[in-house]
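= Paired protein data =
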Amino acid sequence: MEEVQLPVLLHGADPPGARADGPGREGGLLSPTRHSAYKDRQCFGRAPVKKLINDPQRVVREMLEGLCDLHPGLALLQAEDVVVRAELPPAAERPVAVLSGGGAGHEPAHAGYVGPGLLAGAIAGDVFTSPSVDAVLAGIRAASGPAGAILVVKNYTGDRLNFGLAAELARAEGIPVELVVVADDVALHATVPPERRRGIAGTVLIHKLAGAAAAAGQGLEAIAALARAAAAELGSMGVALDACTVPAAGRPGFALGPAEIELGLGIHGEQGVERAALAPADQLVERMLEVILTDRGFRPGERVALLVNGLGGTPPMELAIVARRAIAVLREGGLAVERAWAGEFLTALEMPGISLSVLRLDDSRLALLDAPAEAPAWPGPGRIAPARRIVAAEPAPAVAKPAATGPLTPALGQALQRVAAALEAAEGRLTELDSRAGDGDLGLSMRRAAAALRALPEAGALVDPPTALAAMADAVRRAIGGSSGPFYATALMRAARSLPPLPQARDWAVAFEEAVAAIGALGGARPGDRTMLDALAPAANAFARSLEAGEGLPKAIQAAAQAAEAGVAATADMLPRLGRASYLGARAVGVPDAGAAAAAIWLRALAGPGEP
């Protein structure tokens, strides 16, 4: 494994009672914390982690083979784990070759940056292990010509030794070579001098600058000088939410509690310089940028580029949340964010977490970042707007304001309150049912619907049944996400259009049938498919039959509620054919449908306790 130039890497948890702003914080910056508790929390007893691999000894070669299969602009050396551009010009005509590399496990780095305007080649070692001297030398020979080669190296002892010796051997063969070492990890500011810090994700920006300069025909010494100057004005820092698993080890490298994070970690699965309490994303971003900006001496009015890097297990949703706050913090500090990227650029296998990199810009660097480049992992120019663009929504069509109240307003208000109370009381049951055959959000959705119904004002919204149903449709549509919101809103709107202001009993039956038909038409379901229709359809039929028998509205609603409850019970034996439960097939049998149960709950609330 690449040796990191850091006296102690294994740091444990803060002692009980330690605060995030207590030990380990000096002047607002991170400092190393070490506690003996770590030895009691190692991961040797944790279950092996599943990986989609064949032979742990061949993961790097097979990964590079797949990459080259997918990207015809790449070629793989026969005898070494080295990727080069497939269409390199003849050696005598080649510009300076920019090469980089290191241990595998950082994908898409480094081979993902091989292409015009970026790297001429990338050398891969075993997972988190520096490539051999022979592999680096083979890469230099394959990609460079008389103009020479730049080796962009992250500041780890193994990389510096192997790339450095390969450079000496290449020079002995007559190939001019310059070494550019990137040491951008500012988390180590209180541990080691700047020249001994680790190189992490900001290295990708140095790839781009050097590659663009080489493509423009600049000479070896000029490219090395501009790359070194940029590396000196680059700061990065990372945070991990959990460990990663090296394929050959099969188990995570360390253990974190459910509310713990590692701040200031490297890219090889090691711990950071401080174990801290999990905090909201905005707070973590602010803390990391405080360290970066202070250490690198950024001042208001300067121009910067921002790289938000996922460590391998962080979804795009979270990267966008982080980027949003990072851009805002930089701007609040008076910095002009000229370019910004968010994605996976240099990872640590499947580690959940991120790193932030900030590079000071001038016109020359900005031009190099904007220069054309084609490589599998390069995302493009990274241009962003000077400020977030917010566009006002088109207003809804104006509608005539209804009368304040009507003769049915009190009854409608009482019915709404009963329904809302019943849905709130059933949240836990609906969540449990939905979790067993769906995504578990129905209980929360129905609670939101209840809150929206309670908030409807009697004056105006409940003047008459059609107006009330339309207001309920609008409230539910806004309050409920997922499929329930559109289904209920559509049903309520259809029922509202079919009702007169003072409906008779038969009008209610027609409205109920119209609502059920609207749900079926919208979702394509039929009774027997194990959906809410298996409660609503028999309820509508029972309601109509009761009215036809002359039993009156109260009895009809009781009949509807009883039929709905019977329909819910029947869904437990149905094979689901629509919705998320259909993905489970026979595994969903035995559990009543949650959507049908919700419908029966509000029908029972309308009917009252009824008969046992």
